[in-house]
Design brief:
This protein is of the alpha+beta class. It folds into three domains: about 140 residues, HUPs (Rossmann fold, 3-Layer(aba) Sandwich); about 60 residues, SH3 type barrels, CATH 2.30.30; about 80 residues, Translation factors (Elongation Factor Tu (Ef-tu), domain 3, Beta Barrel), CATH 2.40.30.10. The chain is about 25% helix and about 30% strand. The protein has seven helices and 20 strands. The strands form three sheets. Strands 5, 6, 12, 13, 14, 15, 16, 17, 18, 19 and 20 form an eleven-stranded antiparallel β-sheet that branches. The chain has a five-stranded parallel β-sheet with strand order 3-2-1-4-7, sandwiched between helices. It has a four-stranded mixed β-sheet with strand order 9-8-11-10, with no helix packed on it. The longest helix has 20 residues. It is globular, with a radius of gyration of 22 Å.
């Protein structure tokens, strides 16, 4: 099998490529240059696609004895991930850029180019597994180690993309074993720290970055009744569930802290209220996809589990497709769900599908 190994410069993708070589596949390594922003070029950047990372990937490819290339996807990345991030925040939503990168770059743009060049699969260092059922359909499942499981961020993959995806690390019990394997293989990235934060915001200051790219627009902070209780310099700087940094001029009647419940960009207002009002009884999204075969009858409610963050615990739920939306009702209220987040639906260990959350229904009535 001809395999294109996406090599980020980290230990996971290096070991994944090594395992693909060891399995006897014809492997070519590729590093994606995703950003031309100056901040991502300096030493110490905490993202995942820096100049240093490309050199680490090059060294790993040399050790493995495979061809290596750097592909410039920066324009596509800016349009599909960075600009989308700005647009979502401007619309009062909370996006997940890693989901968009997997959806539109690694398993869309990269896979399209790989297939056009005659490759059979794209290999990555994600911790997830692919299972083929009796009928030959491929299913996406959680990794064997739940502590490192990354199936949530892969929930955007479609059946066609799964058909050409290859995750060699899915059955590995721990990240430490991957590091030890990298050391035995002579890979210099064996003890390289994991990347974190948003790769195109290398200093981690998301609020400052958004202020620079979206601009400041002073407005009101209101309670659930509409009464003004404070002011803000830009609604984009607030997310559902936020408590710190509100600087409210009017204390709550009960003296308890208040949290961001909603961001209304059209009105340029931020709505705050008690923590109890963050409880969400229903979520829904019209932008949904199935990871492999869909339910036999998605218009009939079916039992599942829903996960709304990469490291959140799954919650038992019921889901149904109605009026063009995937509507999910958790068995217990979810805390602090924001439009723009991704809800991934599981059945057992299998990723069934996902939706970008468009709307939420609070478990606490406004007049409560």
């Amino acid at each position: 099998m001809r395999v294109l190994a996406a090599m980020s410069g980290g230990v996971d993708s290096a070991v994944a490529a090594a395992r693909a070589v060891e399995a006897g596949h014809d492997v070519v390594g590729v590093h994606l240059a995703l950003s031309r922003m100056p901040g991502t070029l300096r030493t110490g950047s905490r993202g995942c696609c820096t100049i240093e990372d490309s050199m680490d990937a090059q060294r790993a490819a040399n050790v493995l004895g495979i061809p290596y290339y750097v592909w410039d996807f920066s324009e596509r990345f800016k349009a599909d991930v960075v600009d989308d991030f700005i647009a979502e925040y401007s619309a009062g939503r909370t996006p997940n850029p890693c989901m968009r990168c997997n959806e539109r770059i690694k398993f869309a743009a990269l896979l399209e180019k790989a297939l056009a060049l005659g490759f059979d699969a794209v290999c990555t260092g994600h911790y997830a597994t692919i299972v083929t059922d009796a009928a030959g359909n491929r299913e996406l499942h959680r990794a064997s180690a739940w502590a490192k499981d990354q199936s949530y961020v892969l929930g955007v993959l479609t059946a066609e993309q799964l058909a050409h995806a290859y995750f060699p690390l899915g059955d590995t019990p721990s990240k430490q074993l991957v590091r030890e394997e990298a050391g035995r293989r002579g890979l210099s990235v064996a003890q390289k720290p994991d990347s974190h934060d948003i790769c195109f915001i290398p200093d981690g200051d998301t609020k400052g970055w958004l202020a620079e790219h979206v601009g400041e627009a002073p407005g009101d902070i209101v309670d659930r009744s509409g009464a003004v209780v404070g002011a803000h310099e830009g609604a984009h700087a607030y997310t559902v569930g936020q408590r710190r940094g509100l600087r409210l001029g009017t204390p709550a009647p009960d003296g308890r802290p208040r949290f961001v419940l909603e961001v209304r960009p059209k009105e340029n207002t931020v709505v705050v209220g008690p923590k109890a009002a963050l409880a969400t009884a229903e979520i829904a999204g019209s932008r949904f996809t199935w990871a492999g075969m869909p339910p036999v009858d998605p218009a009939t409610p079916f039992a599942c589990e829903v996960q709304i963050r990469a490291h959140a615990d799954p919650v038992p739920a019921t889901a149904v497709v109605a009026d063009g939306e995937l509507v999910i009702t958790p068995g217990q209220p979810l805390d602090g769900v924001a439009p723009g987040q991704t809800a991934v639906v599981y059945v057992g260990t299998r990723v069934l599908g996902q939706c970008t959350i468009d709307r939420t229904v609070s478990a606490i009535p406004v007049d409560a």
